[in-house]
Amino acid sequence: MKSVNKLYVVVTGIVIGSLLLVSVAELINSGIGVGARRAGQMQNWVFVGLVCRVIWAVGVILLGWYWLKLAGGITFIARSLKNNEPDKIKQGANAVTEELVRAINQQFETCRHENFAMDKQLKEMQIQLHLSQRQKRNTEAIIYSIRDAVIVVDEFDKLLMANEAAAKLFGFDFSNCQHRPIDELIGWETNEFSDLVRHSRQSKARHTKREIDFPDGDSPKTFDCIVSCVYDEREQICGVVAILHDITHEKEVSQMKNDFVSHVSHELKTPLASITAYSEMLADGEAGDEETRKEFYSVIQTQAQRLNRLIEDILNISRIESGLIKVDKKPVSLTILIEEQLQMIKSYAEEKNIEVVGQKPIVFDQVYVDRDMISQVVVNLLSNAVKYTPSGGSVEIRTEVDESGGIARVSMTDTGVGIPADEVEHVFDKFYRVSSNKKQAKGTGLGLNLVKQIVEKVHEGRVFVTSQVGAGSTFGFELPLATGQTVEAV
Amino acid sequence: MADRKVLVVDDEIHIVHVVAIKLRNNGFEVITAANGSEAYELVCQEKPDIIVTDCQMPIMTGLELVERVRQNDEFKEIPVILLTARSFAIEDGQKEALQITECLSKPFSPKELLRSIEDILHREAVVHES
């Protein structure tokens, strides 16, 4: 195509040359060369002029056509560029604009490559941004999902991040508190926690740990606080992360264990103290006569039995709590079971002049239980009722069946001393003894707890109690009825 | 010797009984109570030479009894032996604050208790004589 453009350069040269020749011929014809006027020469110059004019005219036409093509091509290119249709430029290319189109296309290609590279770079950056945002969300989700309170502050003590547990503990709304000075949010100057954070930052310790009590209504909570300094690449502290783990329950469990050991120690040592003292007196010959010796032996025997019962109770509760007790559930007639235990308690009740009124009404339904365990429940409740009822009082046993609920309900109502309202809810607690009733009778505080464990944990039943000081108490339990099992022979 | 009076306080009747026998066999006069409240009344009435008391009792504990006794100028010098079945019955400093002369943990030996009572009363007698 370059040849086309060269051709037009030649044409332009010819046009200009022919124009010059025409001009020369015109000059000659107009008499510049008068001396050379001869007929033959005149004709030659006219012919030359004519030829030159023809050539000039053809040249002008060709040039006109060339410029038209050029202008058309440029207009098309300009329109294609304006409409952002680079592919159309090629279609519109002609012999005149081919070079221009090629140059533009090359430029387009270069731009396209650069654009593509930039697009790629942009996409990579978008991916990086997306990944960073996702990572941030994941980190936030992890921190928010932690049950422990987590607080992150920057080197200027401004809140960067806090999870829900932290916001709840310190009583602020994180959405409104980001980048706010932490001392405004948690009483930075006075709080023991803020002291810990400050100490940690000043000592530049990687991790600092302390137990801190936080007020929470009537029951303060104890937190195990671990504060860690965050270091940047220049080993400068750029923030602090604090994790607060609620150990209130662990502390309570630990306290309960200590109390349990203390109670067990007291309860075991009491009969053991009698056994030790009486046996030493016997060994030292301090029991002067046979009657005194018999009395001492009797005390040793009863205290040894008390010790054995206590150990059995503790072991049974422990076995039930740990799920290690062997349970032998069978359909059992509640009527027969209660009657058997009534006979056992009869002599004790008569001794105290207490009337024990039998079951009203008699129930023939059976319960699906471990016979020995439920016998223990009935005898514990009956002996308690007799124990805490003054002479001349009564104990009434009532048995009911709720067919629709599938349960049997046994209640024992005494005319005893009763339990103060604020202590009723604790009577089934391990080692709990009603303070005002301690002088009434001896007890370990394990009997009712064992009842609760057997009924609720082993048999999925329910224990209940109602009481009025001076009027008496009603203790009872509910057990599931036997369904579809073999009926025990009555 | 016969005029030395010991107040034994415990809600465990068997313990009171055996200690009383041991002390009476060794020439002491023994008075007994089942809780701190009863014991304080006896302290006021009988003014014993020494008090042997259990720690955990209903109505009024042994520590409450000692506290009350120490508040009364007339009885604040009476020596006290505390019997306890709990490992941590007394907090740090409580023994000194309440001027508890001696602590014996259950189970205890009646012989050992007798020896402690005699030692304490002997020391008291020497102090008074001097």
Describe the structure.
The complex is a heterodimer of chains A (490) and B (130). Chain A has 490 residues and is an alpha+beta fold. Chain A folds into four domains: 145 residues; 99 residues, PAS domain (Beta-Lactamase, 2-Layer Sandwich), CATH 3.30.450; 64 residues, Orthogonal Bundle (Helix Hairpins), CATH 1.10.287.130; 152 residues, 2-Layer Sandwich (Heat Shock Protein 90), CATH 3.30.565. In chain A, 57% of the residues lie in helices and 18% in strands. In chain A, the strands form three sheets. Chain A has a five-stranded antiparallel beta sheet, sandwiched between helices. In chain A, strands 7-9-10-12-11 form a five-stranded mixed beta sheet. The radius of gyration of chain A is 55 Å and the shape is rod-shaped. The C terminus of chain A is likely disordered. Chain B has a five-stranded parallel beta sheet, sandwiched between helices. Chain B is built from five helices and five strands, in the order βαβαβαβαβα. In chain B, helix 1 packs across helix 5 and helix 2 runs parallel beside helix 3. The mean pLDDT of chain B is 89. By secondary structure, chain B is an alpha/beta fold. Chain B has a single domain, classed as 3-Layer(aba) Sandwich (Rossmann fold), CATH 3.40.50. Chains A and B meet through helix 9 and helix 10 of A and helix 1 of B.
